[in-house]
Design a protein that fits this description.
Helix 7 packs across helix 9. This protein folds into two domains: 87 residues, Orthogonal Bundle (Rna Polymerase Sigma Factor, Chain: A); 76 residues, Arc Repressor Mutant, subunit A, CATH 1.10.10. Helices cover 70% and strands 0% of the residues. The protein has 195 residues and is mainly alpha-helical. The chain has nine helices and no strands.
Length: 195
């Protein structure tokens, strides 16, 4: 087992000091302390695993927060998928209330509310492959450009907030977004759409 260089060891220690801030951040977004703990744990593990990717161009807290935002989005996506998978019966449905059946189905025995369409295994595989290709294209963008694009287009953050966090002007932000869109379009054209 090789020893870590001293700057990595210092970063490992410093990462842990940001845990309480990250938990507050995640709790404010998810409104559940257990969920916040879970995503913070995932973010810290990802940070420790990707410590070589931290170049010091931003503060450690900013870097950790950006990782946490990705984990929060992943958590929310998993939650939506789980919700769609496990539809709960109506709250009023129990053994003593037989009228719930009439509220759920029409006279012909069909659902009153149509069920959502399920993805076929091929569609699901295709969607997963697309997001892998998209992630690969995102990885080819300059780090700051990818961060700005993600904050604006995925997280939906306001330009002013992004400019302040990244210490850039609004015009610089729009140029970065424009370049990111062009690069992503070109990359996806080569790696996904031309298949």
């Amino acid at each position: 087992m090789s020893l870590l260089p001293s700057h990595k060891a210092t970063l490992f220690i410093e990462i842990e000091t940001h845990r309480s801030y990250l938990i507050r951040f995640a709790t404010a977004r998810l409104r559940e302390s257990d969920a916040a703990e879970e995503v913070v744990q995932e973010a810290l593990l990802a940070a420790l695993g990707g410590i070589d990717g931290f170049a010091g161009e931003s503060t450690l807290r900013t870097w950790l927060t950006s990782i946490l935002k990705f984990k929060i989005i992943d958590f929310q996506r998993r939650r939506v998928v789980d919700r769609e998978r496990f539809v709960q019966p109506p709250a009023e449905a129990d053994d003593t209330d037989t009228a719930w059946f009439d509220r759920m189905f029409d006279e012909t025995g069909h659902w009153r509310a149509s069920m959502s369409t399920w993805a076929t295994p091929d569609d699901a595989a295709s969607q997963k492959a697309f997001f892998l290709a998209f992630g690969s294209c995102m990885d080819k963008l300059p780090e700051a450009t990818a961060r700005v694009f993600f904050q604006r287009e995925v997280l939906g953050e306001e330009t002013d907030k992004i400019c302040k966090a990244e210490a850039i002007s609004a015009s610089n932000c729009w140029v970065m977004l424009h370049r990111a869109r062009l690069s992503l379009r070109e990359c996806l054209d080569r790696t996904w759409f031309s298949k």
